[in-house]
Write a structure and sequence with these properties.
single chain; about 140 residues; mainly alpha; 2 strands; about 5% strand; TOPRIM_Topo6A/Spo11; DNA topoisomerase type II (double strand cut, ATP-hydrolyzing) activity
Length: about 140
């Protein structure tokens, strides 16, 4: 199981764990078919944004107020996301479900021009409820 943020670094982590590091580009034995990606996805951002539009701040365990649900991508973020898309196209099998999800999530993140961390998904910054839901969903789907 792999739990990542919805940002270019998190998506690149998924790519590396699933398909191997760039230094091993020619070694298909580094592909890890057992990886299941549980990280935040663009549909989580869209759902949370629609339910928290009137909410200014949320209480967090790690701080007194939680940042806005999403942050705009920086120039560095956009560059890394484009680079990740190029690496997905070059190294990942077309028929691979994770590769397709990764490509779509990266493209959607770029179109929305947002990134998000998992910490704000659950009330009070506690991910246990959200993570429980994701694990149950992963077991039955």
């Amino acid at each position: 199981m792999l739990l990542t943020d919805l940002d270019p670094d998190g998506l690149n982590i998924v790519r590396c764990y699933r398909f191997g590091a760039d230094s091993l580009a020619n070694d298909t034995t580094t592909h890890n078919n057992g990886i299941h990606w549980l990280g935040i996805k663009t549909h989580h951002v869209q759902a949370a944004a629609s339910t928290t539009q009137s909410q200014q701040h949320r209480t967090s365990i790690s701080s007194t107020t939680c940042r806005d649900p999403v942050s705009l991508l920086s120039a560095r973020d956009r560059k890394l996301a484009r680079h990740t898309l190029a690496r997905i196209a070059a190294r990942c099998p077309e028929a691979d479900t994770i590769a397709e999800q990764l490509r779509l999530q990266t493209q959607t993140m770029l179109m929305m021009n947002v990134k998000a961390e998992m910490q704000w998904l659950d009330d009070a910054g506690d991910l246990t409820d959200w993570l429980d839901e994701q694990l149950v969903d992963a077991m039955y789907n």
